[in-house]
Amino acid sequence: MSLKKKYLKTRPVCKVTFKIPKEAAKGAREINIVGDFNSWNAAASPMKSLKNGGFTLTLDLNKDKEYQFRYLFDNICWENDWAADKYMPSSMGNCDNSVVIL
Length: 102
Hints:
This protein has one helix and nine strands. By secondary structure, it is mainly beta. The strands form two sheets. Strands 3, 6, 7, 8 and 9 form a five-stranded antiparallel beta sheet that branches. A hairpin with a 5-residue loop joins β4 and β5.
């Protein structure tokens, strides 16, 4: 899993590309990214499946903020991003959330 950040010079926005390689996708048919940026709506940000079996999604996120998020595989299994900037305890209490810092 990886996070790639590209800061825009013309707007206070960072383009963040989230990638999940085939090995990490564990054969999932669909993966959604769920977090602060989409009000934890499991259907709001589906990732694009790639021909190589991986998944990707690029989001425009406001700079100077931190966003908690997790990946939802096939609407069943939650996963964190191995390349997250840090981890924070979930409000659900039983796990940590990934965090991207912009």
